[in-house]
């Protein structure tokens, strides 16, 4: 009998007993295996596809897609129709590929779909919740469908709903929930059977900026607190850089780019500076710009960039640039709020690649949205 060692404990790390001793011994053996597993898991490929294609009569949804995804939080980004949902359905073993092969957690999607779905949670993109039942009833039902016994299903449901921030409202019918609450129910049912990996299809769809931030925080915690790997899709590049360790970009069913988020957001040689205003210099930014210009240093305005505000950008030539900025700001009697090397935002990397007309694989990118 295979026992998922993570089920020994609830989300707070409390043992989920009571168990009899013989079962505990089996579970402790499982836990030992889990510890060994956790120490080697970092080197494991969680998802691997090889020349994977899916052709519908009138459209090629996936076109010879080869990509490897490791543990952690991975963003799968692409415009509407790029093939993200199609890929997830193939990876779950729910839809056959036309060509190529894929493995999830080392299991073949063509022949081991059932075993994959035991270990993987799935949050679908579209609203698929029954309006007349409560979140508790629905998630308990999904837990029972995953094979949990009644008492464990109820306990896990309560823990999972609390984790996604739906505790007080859990006995109300889902039909009266807001979009954000419905998204949380969908997330809870994907997590309730304690999967090793979850596929989250557009979990921020329809959410306002606050709801989106909360959902992205929750997604990050799924990995950091519970060790569950995540594949999350979005059509917004920008929202993935704070959440994901790795980003895979698809367009027209083809792989556009697969890199760690830090590769996308490398440190640049651009220095960003922000200063205070004073009575003498009510526009401190302009005063600094003019003073630097008088010393032969050109700056440009960063206000069009995400989160930039009153920021001046200039190229750092070395230590001298830092000293010069410090002296100019001090001579003007202004306060220096920040002076830092900027990092790229993912969206800017794509904008730059688009500007010079080239990209990694010669695939068009206009369709990929740029989130804030
Ligand atoms: N069952 C189907 N029959 C025919 N065409 C399909 C089917 N499912 C998807 N497609 C088509 O395949 C392409 C990829 O669709 P897919 O849903 O995978 O994209 P997506 O990236 O998830 O976009 P979205 O976020 O809009 O769902 C689209 O052109 C879509 O119309």
Automatic annotation (TrEMBL):
Residues 47-277 form the ABC transporter domain. It comes from the Bacteria. CDD domains: ABC_DR_subfamily_A. Keywords: ATP-binding, Nucleotide-binding, Transport. Residues 353-372 are annotated as: Disordered. The keyword Lyase does not apply. Residues 362-372 have a biased composition (Basic and acidic residues). Pfam families: ABC_tran (PF00005). GO terms for molecular function: ATP binding; ATP hydrolysis activity. InterPro entries: AAA+_ATPase, ABC_transporter-like_ATP-bd, P-loop_NTPase. Belongs to the ABC transporter superfamily. This is ABC transporter ATP-binding protein. It comes from Streptomyces olivochromogenes.
């Amino acid at each position: 009998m295979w026992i998922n060692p993570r089920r020994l404990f609830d989300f707070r790390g409390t043992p989920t007993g009571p168990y009899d001793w013989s079962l505990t011994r089996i579970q402790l053996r499982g836990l030992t295996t889990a510890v060994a597993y956790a120490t080697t898991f970092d080197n494991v490929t969680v998802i691997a596809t090889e020349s994977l294609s899916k052709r519908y009569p009138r459209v090629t949804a996936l076109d010879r897609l080869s990509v490897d995804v490791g543990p952690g939080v991975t963003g799968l980004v692409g415009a509407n129709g790029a093939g993200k949902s199609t890929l997830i359905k193939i990876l779950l073993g729910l839809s056959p590929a036309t060509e190529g092969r894929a493995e999830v957690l080392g299991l073949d999607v063509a022949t081991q779909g059932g075993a994959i779905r035991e270990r993987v949670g799935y949050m679908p993109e579209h609203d698929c919740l029954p309006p007349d039942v409560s979140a508790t009833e629905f998630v308990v039902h999904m837990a029972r469908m995953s094979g949990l016994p009644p008492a464990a299903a109820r306990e896990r449901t309560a823990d999972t709903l609390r984790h996604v921030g739906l505790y007080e409202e859990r006995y109300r019918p889902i039909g009266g929930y807001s979009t954000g609450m419905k998204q949380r129910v969908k997330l809870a049912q994907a997590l309730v059977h304690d999967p090793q990996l979850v596929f989250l299809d557009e979990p921020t769809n329809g959410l306002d900026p606050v709801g989106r931030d909360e959902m992205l925080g929750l997604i990050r915690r799924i990995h950091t607190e519970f060790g569950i790997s995540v594949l999350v899709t979005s059509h917004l590049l920008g929202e993935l850089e704070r959440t994901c360790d790795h980003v895979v970009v698809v367009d027209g069913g083809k792989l556009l780019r697969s890199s760690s988020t830090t590769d996308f957001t490398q440190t640049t040689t651009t220095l960003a500076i922000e200063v205070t205003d004073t009575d003498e210099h009510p526009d401190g930014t302009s005063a600094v710009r003019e003073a630097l210009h008088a010393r032969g240093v050109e700056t440009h305005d960063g206000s069009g960039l995400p989160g930039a505000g009153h920021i001046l950008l200039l190229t750092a030539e070395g230590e001298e640039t830092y000293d010069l900025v410090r002296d100019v700001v001090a001579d003007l009697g202004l306060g220096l709020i920040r002076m830092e090397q900027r990092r790229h935002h993912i969206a800017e990397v794509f904008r730059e690649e688009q500007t010079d007309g080239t990209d990694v694989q010669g695939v068009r990118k206009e369709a990929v949205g740029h989130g804030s």
